[in-house]
# Entry
Amino acid sequence: MFLLIPAVLMFSACDEEDDATPDPLQPTADVTTCLGCHSDDATLKAVAEPNPPIEPGHGGCGGELPEMEAWLKVYVGGSNGEKFLESAHGKLACRSCHGGKEPATDKLDAHTGDFTGRPSLEADKYCGSCHPSIASRDKSSLHTQGFGQKAMVAKRSGFPSYENYPEELKKGYDKNCGKCHASCGECHVMRPRQAGGGFLAAHDFKKTPDMRLNCTACHSARVAHAYFGESPGTRPDVHYMKLPGGSCMNCHSTDEMHGTGTIYTQRYSVPNQPKCENCHGDKSSANSYHSLHWDNISCQTCHSQDYQHCGSCHVDTGTRNGPYMAFKIGKNPLPGVKRFKYVTLRNAPAAPDTWSNYGVPSLANFASEPTFRHATPHNIKRWTPRTEVAQGESCSSACHIKDGANKEWFLFRDDLGEQWEKDANDVVVVDDIIPESWK
# Structure
């Protein structure tokens, strides 16, 4: 949010005990203007409201970043501030994107009228004049709009679509799930709301999002911990170790983020999704194991390490069951999208009463979708507990079930606790498809 106060407060705010601002930018305008306020640390410190406390069970699934002081989140200063002012975006009038009033008598006066702190929420309006192709696709972007989650909640609730949610449920979705689906600014200008917000570099625009401050600030527990080898007992993903910079963008394209103009309600249905074959080519005959399993078993079932699963989530009060590390293979829940019979599955945070704090005591059609979802863990290694075996043994000794061995790799009904879990996951458990020769 942009901040502004009268000039008199700028001087009364000076305090000998205040920490010196590193690499300060001298204000280039008086304090009644947007830039005059936002380039003056004393002014911002005087009027910045403290960061709100983190609410227990706030419903976010992302990670955390080191906390920024409230004033620093909106400070256009230092060498990065200079860089921004010299850029194409910095030459635009602040009000051309943010609206509001200038000059203004104080913070409240400045933030009246058509003021918006996050203009890229309306990308076609505020970004489209310079970036028409990207902005026009924003409304179809799964990354921005969260169509998959919206469709999932609708299906389990018995509503035709997100637009048919009761207003209270919409409010709950937007407050919780919605805050991790990023606007343009939350990738290119600021840290995501989920991680506390704040400029990445004094309002300077970054063409490529920062992997740590943007991507994994949201994609944390289920991606970053695995990819960086931060989960207990794991090693970093081989792609992080060997590809240039280990960047997410080595595999994930801009079209995947910005949208294609077509709405998809399942992320694995989006065209140009990363595939192992994009870099590794057709390895179907590389060895006897590939020849046997290429069309039936996803790459991750052999080449992933243990990965994090989530407990069932009750929005606003958090998880009933905490996250845990495991490895589970089950039936492919997306046979029309992925060719495999067996895939890795992840327990996702959902339960029939997940949205009870928002007017839906129980999701009427909860069992219409499994809670163990198709997963592509970001912790790939060539040698894993399913591929590394004793000399003279085949991989089957580390994966196929025989005399009870290796059963822990597969999802069975007995792995599920409550009846609603069993009902929802009947389509992915392997009880009825394990070959007789394995038993």
In short: Residues 312 and 349 are 4 Å apart (CA to CA).
